[in-house]
Amino acid sequence: MHVTRLRLTNFRNYAALDLALPPGLVVLWGENAQGKTNLLEALFYLSTSRSPRTSRDAELIGWHTPEGEARFMRAEAAVQRRDRTVTLDITVMPRGGDAPTTAPAASDDAEVFVAAAPGALKRIRVNGVPRRAIDLLGNAPVVFFRPEDVELVTGAPAVRRRSIDILISQLDPRYPRALQRYGRAVTQRNALLRRIAERAATVDHLGPWDDLLVRDGAYLLHERLRVVAALSEIAATAHEQLSGARDRLAMAYVPTACQASTEPAEAQIGEAFLQALASARHRDLALGQTTVGPHRDDVALLVNRAPAADYASRGQQRTIALAWRLAEAEYLRTASQEPPIVLLDDVLSELDPRRRSAVLRAMAAFDQVILTATEAVADAGTLHPAATFEVRHGTVMADDTAST
Fold first, then answer.
1. What are the C-alpha distances in Å from 93 to residues 39, 129, 183, 233, 401?
2. In this structure, are residues 319 and 246 in contact, taking their beta carbons and an 8 Å threshold?
3. CA distances from 94 to 61, 113, 121, 137, 360 (A)
4. What is the pLDDT of residues 27-55, one digit of tens each?
5. Antiparallel, parallel or unpaired: β 368-373 and 341-345
6. DSSP-derived secondary structure letter, 58
7. Residue 14 near residue 8 (C-beta atoms within 8 A)
8. Peptide bond into 52 cis (omega under 30)
9. How far apart are CA 267 and CA 350, in angstroms?
């Protein structure tokens, strides 16, 4: 699977881009702040409908629109899969009194624009057909390596949960729907807990909400436990290769509502979850929050049996994060029997020659790897053979020919 074409209109610093991409290794090089990361962000956004850099879709809209015309951003990609071609198309417009009532480019389906909170309206199309964001997932699976991935080790549990959720959602269309319903149920249950504390409701009203949480929460827990167990084995092997077998990595899902198990039964998880909600009821009422469930879980990372966030050096933390992403890529490749698109954002420049060589060897298993680099790294001779593009001020050039 590989992206054959990427088109951007008013996406960050790209006023207009029409870029043909080959399979294999693609190197985007140039100085800092030229737009290299923006290209990878656009590809990730087209795959997941989310930016890895901001939660505000409106921030993706560039300032290239001529005065008097409605501002908007559009990202499009053609993806060649093993048995079909998929086209992805996302348009974002500011939300407000001056927002246009019709879609750009003379489109007649303005009614499919939906709120993309905060501050934007968004339209998604797959193969020209209007779709919801949840239907976009899985059409072009992607794994994104970023320097900020060290937050997988040092960041809050929500960072690790989000990474696992994105991974599973790209393989299983049921999962993001269950996650969405579960999130709404947690919000409603929390509101009810506060109403009970204000004596505007009674604890008897919690029963139906507990049942709703368990219905989807048990499935989420089942899938997370299963997938993290698989990731742990792959990540341990990748980490051994990256570290030269000096350190050992262990990765485990830490649930708050049941016992961890490598082969959990969903029904047993549901029973344990319901019991955990009952046991935590007094605490939940005191805090006005649901304190057990998938929204409170974590992924433990141990290096040499010690918590990585507390005891691993900065270099070790970066190696752990890299092993995590390599495990995600390999898991997607084996689970879907089709390699995902791999995006590497200025990762190689921070690695020593041995680790860089290990990463590049691992990348040989994928149909398309797109990486950003400085000129020094691109000229180091370790990345060839590769298709090389220079990125300069929102312009992409290959073989001295502008592709915009």
1. 19, 19, 26, 43, 31
2. no
3. 8, 11, 6, 23, 40
4. 999 989 899 999 999 999 999 999 999 98
5. parallel
6. G
7. yes
8. no
9. 45
